[in-house]
Amino acid sequence: MTGAPELGRPRLQLSPREFGRIREFLYERSGLFFAENKKYLLENRMSRLLEAAGATTVDEYLTLLASPARGRQALMELLDAVTTHETSFFRHRTQLEAFQRQVLPQLLEGLKARGRRSLRIWSAACSSGEEPYTLSMLILEALGPTLGGWDVRIYGTDIAQSMIRKAKEAEYTKYSFRGTSPYYAQKYFEVLGADRFRVKDEVRRLVEFGILNFADDLRMGRMRGFQAIFCRNALIYFDKPAKQKFVDHF
To answer: Is 121 helix (H, G, I), strand (E, B) or coil?
Structure first.
């Protein structure tokens, strides 16, 4: 959630032309679609970026984004700022229950029938890592701590570099546990302090994290061979053509 601008710092006011240019740039570079009613969100979240970049106008900022020297890092910072990072452990409970009770047993049985014991799962737009770690816990519940001879890898990706850093740290506050049963909280987390918890190593070792922009066709072309893909948190921010492009990779 974005707070109110600080006193003395007027919120960025995007003209229709500027909003159109920023929106088009973000869509081309990431597939993220910002409708007209999201103009306020871009204004709130971009104000600090322009100031930090030393840009006095949106046109100057767009020139920076296109520059060979600073453009890549500036783009990463922009995407980090404008994306929403709301998540928690065991979010979308109905989806997870279906995975645990129906999808996962069928996947394991089907793979075993073909003589395979390798399971690959992708959590797209994983934010700070709660979803892939949740999936790891569910798989440990199904297979046990030694995994019964299975080779399991869960890949968590996000476009925001700050979220991937946090996911790799695997440290969370109580806010991330809303909706999490005491059973999982006690079994799979270490208590570091009054409001600090770390995911246990047995959960972490099944998960890998990396930055991924869905508009990067080369990288997306390598994201294959998964038995399950969790992408609900990603597709809700795309328009229909961008959703179709994402699905067409598979």
So the answer is: strand
List the beta bridge partners of residue 118: 151
Residue labelled with tokens 């440290």: 171
How much is the pLDDT for 56? 87
How far apart are alpha carbons 82 and 86 in whole angstroms?
12
Q: Give the separation between CA 248 and CA 244, rounded to whole angstroms.
A: 6
Find out whether 133 and 204 touch, Cβ atoms under 8 Å.
yes
Domains of the chain from N-terminus onward? 16-82 (1.10.155), 93-248 (3.40.50.150)
- Average pLDDT over the chain, rounded to an integer: 91
Confidence of residue 2 (pLDDT cuts 50, 70, 90): very low
State how far the alpha carbon of 159 is from the alpha carbons of 10, 88, 148, 155, 244, in Å: 28, 18, 34, 13, 19
User: Quick check: 10 pLDDT over 70?
Assistant: no
Q: Can you tell me the distance from the alpha carbon of 233 to that of 34, in angstroms, rounded to the nearest whole number?
A: 16
Global confidence as pTM: 0.89
Take residue 144 and report the two structure tokens written for it: 């046990």
**Mean per-residue pLDDT for 128-136?**
97
Q: How far is residue 156 from each of residues 34, 165, 204, 227, 238, measured CA to CA in Å? A: 24, 12, 11, 14, 19
Q: What is the distance in angstroms between the CA of the first residue and the CA of the last residue of the chain? A: 33
Using alpha carbons, select from 129, 249, 141, 130 the residue that is nearest to residue 187.
Answer: 141
For residue 4, what pLDDT band results from cuts at 50, 70 and 90?
very low
